[in-house]
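[Automated response] Your request has been received and processed.

Submitted sequence:
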Amino acid sequence: MSRAELDKQPSDVQRMFDGVAKRYDLTNSVLTGGIDAMWRRESLAAVDPRPGDRILDLAAGTGVSSVAFAKAGAEVVPCDFSLGMLQAGKKARPELPFVAGDGTKLPFADDTFDAVLVSFGIRNFVDPVAGLAEMRRVTRPGGKVVVCEFSTPTWSPFRVAYMEYLMKALPAIARAVSSNPEAYVYLAESIRAWPDQRGFGAMMEEAGLTRPQYRNLTGGIVALHRATA
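Generated structure:
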């Protein structure tokens, strides 16, 4: 099965996610011990959708996060560039209006959405700053851009243990449950190479977003970033 490298060529990333789509949600729950559900709830709260809001769920995968936005009364559009993910999502959640799209070249007009959320997806963009700029473009002035992404644990001993888990235990667990275990070697490498909380905040500013702020979740394993378009 295929995996991407850290240069994140879009065709490689796309094939990789096509290969994990079938068991993607199950694998994520197993690898995180179910904590991913809490991270999704915190992301929902950061967006704070209201009935009638237009929300873009970018790099939405199979649409797991989109369901909560729809239940809140928002008009949510799950968008991903992996056709395998979109097919799996449409099969599981046929009521959602899935859209195929590249995060660095979004197929939406300016100022279309009240908020954009990307959960654990921007790390896989070939150009994250371009992706953030696209999120700003399609969000109305004053709207929210929310990014939930793996980050750097704040406590040094925990950080060391976490990195050991990423590089050793995570791929081993993935071999037992994933349809493409090699993809999770890339996952571990990409998390280790990703900027820390402040570094990603600087990327948001570079993309033209204003007032970036973040909140650590689970000791900094994940950071919930928010900025204004």
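Summary generated for your ticket: The mean pLDDT is 90. The first helix runs from residue 10 to 20.
If you did not submit this request, please reply to this message.
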